[in-house]
């Protein structure tokens, strides 16, 4: 045995690689954590006053995206594809009259007007940010995910 092969054998025996987790286990944990997140949002919605119309709508919107992400993870696990499709399609229905009214209301309140599509995309990005840790875990485990916000 040569000195080089002995040294290589020593180096590789001394460093034990951690076991690679099963991708299905990673998805199971992400699904469980997402369900817990949805439950916390639901509890927060229940605790929010009926008078807080905007807050309740924001919570419902966030819950919609969280449930969509959870369904995407379940579908990836069920199909054994292990590719998590987090993309979502958003329908844009432009009505010039509604747009003008919304612009006027925003201006009368001293707010900047933000179109519906931009608001929805920002909400999607915010909800997606909430599962950033899962995306990192998936990438470390070579599980592909495909987030995209696509107006129809």
The overall pLDDT, averaged over residues, is 76
Give the number of helices: 6
What's the end-to-end separation, in Å?
A: 66 Å
- Please describe the biggest sheet, giving its number of strands, its sense, and whether it closes into a barrel: 2 strands, parallel
Q: What general form does the structure show? A: elongated
Helix-strand category: mainly alpha
Alpha carbon gyration radius: 23 Å
Strand line-up across the major sheet: 1-2
Strand content: under 5%
- Count of β-strands: 2
Uncertain segments of ≥5 residues (pLDDT<50)? none
Task: Give the % helix.
Answer: 55-70%
H/E element string?
A: HHHEHHHE
Walk me through the structure:
It contains 6 helices and 2 strands, in the order αααβαααβ. It has 152 residues and is mainly α. Helix 3 (53-79) crosses helix 5. The termini are far apart. 12% of the residues are buried.
Brief digest:
The chain has 152 residues and is mainly alpha-helical. It has a two-stranded parallel sheet with strand order 1-2. It has helices at residues 3-14, 23-47, 53-79, 96-108, 116-130, 132-140; strands at 88-90, 149-151.
Labels describing this entry:
mainly alpha; two-stranded parallel ribbon; 152 residues; single chain
Fold blueprint:
Elements: H1 3-14, H2 23-47, H3 53-79, E1 88-90, H4 96-108, H5 116-130, H6 132-140, E2 149-151
Parallel strand pairs: 1-2
Helix pairs in contact: 2-3, 3-5
């Amino acid at each position: 045995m040569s000195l080089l092969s002995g040294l290589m054998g020593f180096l590789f025996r001394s460093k034990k690689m951690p076991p690679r987790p099963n991708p299905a286990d990673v998805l199971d944990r992400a699904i469980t954590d997402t369900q817990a997140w949805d439950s916390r949002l639901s509890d927060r919605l229940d605790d929010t006053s009926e008078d807080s119309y905007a807050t309740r709508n924001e919570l419902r919107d966030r819950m919609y995206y969280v449930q969509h992400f959870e369904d995407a993870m379940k579908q990836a696990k069920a199909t054994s594809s292990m590719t998590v499709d987090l993309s979502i399609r958003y329908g844009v229905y432009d009505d010039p009259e509604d747009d003008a009214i919304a612009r006027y209301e925003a201006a009368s309140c001293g707010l900047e007007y933000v179109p519906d599509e931009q608001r929805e995309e920002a909400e999607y990005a915010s909800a997606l940010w909430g599962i950033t840790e899962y995306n990192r875990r998936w990438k470390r485990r070579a599980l592909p995910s495909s987030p995209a916000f696509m107006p129809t």
